[in-house]
Fold:
Amino acid sequence: MTAEPSRSAGRMRASDADREAVVEQLREAAADGRIDLEELDERLELALTARTHAELAPLTDDLVPVMLESDEPLTLKGGIHGVTRTGRWKVPPRIVAYGGLGGVRLDFTRAECRLREIEVVVDAQMAGVVFVVPVGWRAETDALDPGFGGLKDKTSGERLPGTPVLRISGTCGAGGVVVRYPNLLERRRQRKELSR
Structure:
């Protein structure tokens, strides 16, 4: 069992990697025409001198990319045997998950995600849907109908700069919806994979 940090994520010191991630997002936003070069320079200076996550967050909060309506969602159907998306996979802007009798498990911990928002529609049905997210990701579930199974959000709710928001809507059905961080076994497995 790991202890939760006593201070909020926003007050945590930013690392060089955190600052680099924000710098990359700012450069992409300028390339897309969402901010002009003068504003890019201002934000880059603030990003490079930021000491905490709270100082980094406002620099990219208004730069969520526009989702195209023509984008086909990733559709996962649990069926009888269930379905899992884990390891290295590219996260699309929209995901639809049907729990069926076997359930759906989406593990984002090693996924490639450059999005600021991911729209997820769930129909948890009998077996439910489980989301495993890295620390710092946040799930917004206000549009989710709890159904019989209900929602269990085991995350802190704190969002770190440069991390996505899962906007989850739909119904929890009988199986329920769970949002959590990786458990001990999953963390051990990840460490073993990374050490190879």
Q: What stands out?
A: The chain has a mean pLDDT of 86.
